[in-house]
Specification:
Blueprint (H helix, E strand, L loop, with lengths): L5 H22 L10 H19 L3 H4 L15 E7 L7 E3 L17 E3 H10 L2
Antiparallel strand pairs: 1-2, 1-3
Bound molecules: zinc ion (ZN).
Length: 127
């Protein structure tokens, strides 16, 4: 899932095809027929987007709205093994000392570690 609109997907195809055709033309005199590879097509598309940005006042999102969210999920939020999340909508942070949640009957060992940021909020609220 890329999360792009149809227009963005179309624009991404346009720039990828332009990048491919440019290299195809450059390699033609050498008798090389380049195989489609996102490794160099992506790199050249980035360069094209950069030029469109610097010389023609466009933004990267306009020229190359390629959102690579599969390869780059971003930094994971840190978690702590001393706390866990139960299935409740609210007040779902529990210390691992507490083996189950009386409200939703969740059991500590079946549930994931809590994120540090939520634990800090939970502790600050003093619940
Ligand atoms: Zn619960």
């Amino acid at each position: 899932m890329s999360g792009m609109t149809d227009a963005q997907e179309h624009q991404t195809d346009v720039i990828h095809n332009a990048a491919y055709e440019a290299i195809e033309k450059v390699l033609e005199p050498f008798g090389i027929d380049p195989e489609w590879s996102m490794e160099w097509i992506g790199e050249l598309s980035d360069s094209i987007a950069d030029i469109a940005k610097r010389y023609f006042g466009l933004t990267e999102m306009q020229v190359y709205p390629y959102i690579d969210d599969e390869d780059d999920p971003g930094p994971a939020e840190p978690t702590t093994r001393y706390f866990w999340d139960c299935d409740c909508e609210k007040n779902y942070i529990h210390s691992r000392i507490q083996e189950y949640c009386p409200a939703c009957q969740s059991i500590s060992c079946d549930h994931p570690n809590s994120t540090v940021s939520e634990v800090i909020k939970f502790l600050a609220a003093g619940e």
